[in-house]
Amino acid sequence: MAIRLEIDGVNLTGDFEFLSTLGVGSFGRVKFAKYKKDGKMYAVKFMKKAQIIDLKQVDHINGEKELQQNIHHPFCVNMMGYAKCERFVYIVMECVGGGELFQHLRRVGKFNEEQSRWFGAIVACAWAHIHGKDIIHRDLKPENVLICQNGYGKVTDFGFAKVIASGDHTYTLCGTPEYIAPEVLLNKGHGKPVDWWTLGILIYEMLCGAPPFVDDDPLGIYQKIIAGKAYFPKTMNPDAKQVIKKLCTADLGKRWGDRKEGPQEVLNAKWISHLDLKKLEAVSLPSPYDSGMKDEHDLSNIEEPPESAEWPRIIPEDECPFIGW
Predict the structure, then answer these.
(1) Where are the domains of the chain?
(2) What would the pLDDT profile of 183-197 be if each residue is shown by its tens digit?
(3) Which residue of the set 139, 157, 195, 258 is catalytic?
């Protein structure tokens, strides 16, 4: 069945060649696609309109699209376009084919200090950018950092992201258990500092091979997070330990990243300042991590999920609540 879409004059089905499935989400799947006119690769997110409507998530999906229109950064998966047809809404994104940081980390056990600093700085730069636009991500974890062919990384999955001004709070419980900040668990209201907490957890996990607060039961994880007692190996660099402790403190007045010094407090930390951040953001530094990709078409780091033959029902245009697509 042919679906004809126009995105800035591009016919999605006529001008794109869909090659494989990169992943499966709550409302559909992400396809790896080649733009025939220039051979460049993209990721096209197919989301079922009927399912979104049935689950009353229209405002959520509309908000995700509007939010991603405001994000343009080398360390975020950027949106390139969007469209809709009678069955789906679509978001066209940059394609990052190196797989999840999660897969790479599990394969090697843990990263060395140079690699951990590298990806930590990349996420810190991404947070500085989105927080400057009053956007919080709220779901950092190794699965949500994608590895590029050049060994850089990009933050993805803005499904839990939200626009919230400095000093304001939101109260939705969301995130991965090992990465949830204590103020979220205690329902005190949370804002930009939650992202800096998750960065501290990520740096710890990269250096140690596991997050600092683990348990077989999520409730046990939450109790350990609230208790705030983390074990630091004696071999850990004191400067790295300082960054983690300053990010993973329950006291928001002491947590780095959202105080009056802003993100520069993190970026100027002794452990991170080994990197030339201007060159890093210009993507002109050589990466200490080898992605293992032969070229941008190499998807060997991605395990393709099974295809689905099911077609969602048609939503007539006069019944469509997806405005502005």
Answers:
(1) 6-97+298-309, 101-281
(2) 999 998 999 999 999
(3) 139
